[in-house]
Amino acid sequence: MRKWLIRASILAVGISGAFYIWLGQDIKKGVEPVADGTATYMIVLGAKVKPGGVPSLSLKNRLEVAAQYLQQHPHVNVIVSGGQGADEEQTEASVMLSYLQNKGIERQRIIVEDQSTSTYENLLFSKKLLPEGTTHITIVSNDFHLRRARYLADVLDLKADVLVAATPKSVEAKSQLRERAALLKTYIIGH
How many CB atoms are located within 10 Å of the residue 152 CB? Predict the structure, then answer.
């Protein structure tokens, strides 16, 4: 009985390790294809907002990448997507709107989606704001998050290219671990 338990434990650790590595490799595939201006709509996925309406470093990195791209591609419009968490004073979308406007992005180019509470909802609710027939989009998020976001876009019949925002070193390990679990859950339940 004891040998069986040891073997089962070793097998479980081996399988878990294999899944961990496989999911890590899959996450790395999310950073392509890189946006080149062909999609006329971009979706910036929300992230934590600190007290006082200050974007977390993860969100700030997303917004910096988005602002630079929007300045280079004036024909692209952007949907800022993110609701208000229980511990947030305002919606993520409202913070993103202000940030992009402060970077010189015209208000008429920014569409606000402020009801979503998950990555799936970010994309689902944003899709409803796209002009009819629009299926090619650019997604902006941190590197670890893009594989799952692209998978969910595909589930929603959206073709997505991406803009990669750096993940802050202070949250990199935690984000990578959490994202593996979220990606596995997404693969199992479909969204």
Answer: 22
pLDDT, tens only, 42-87: 999 999 999 999 999 999 999 999 999 999 999 999 999 999 988 8
Instruction: Name the superfamily (CATH) of residues 2-189.
Output: HUPs (3.40.50.620)
Q: How far is CA 125 from the centre of its chain?
A: 14
Structure tokens at 118: 């998950």
Neighbours of 116 (CB within 10 A): 21
Q: Does a cis peptide bond (omega within 30 degrees of 0) precede residue 51? A: no
- The answer to whether residues 190 and 62 touch, using CB atoms and an 8 Å cutoff, is no
Environment class of 122 (CB within 10 Å of its CB; exposed 0-12, middle 13-18, buried 19+): buried
Total length of the chain: 191
Other C-beta atoms within 10 Å of 128: how many?
A: 7
Q: What gap in Å lies between CA 128 and CA 121, rounded to an integer?
A: 11
Closest residue by Cα to residue 160 from 186, 185, 142, 137: 137
How deeply is 103 buried, as exposed, middle or buried, from its count of CB atoms within 10 A (0-12, 13-18, 19+)? middle
Strand partners, 111: 79
Q: What is the pTM of this model?
A: 0.86
Count of C-beta atoms within a 10 Å radius of residue 172: 14
User: Do residues 112 and 77 touch, judged by C-beta distance below 8 A?
Assistant: no
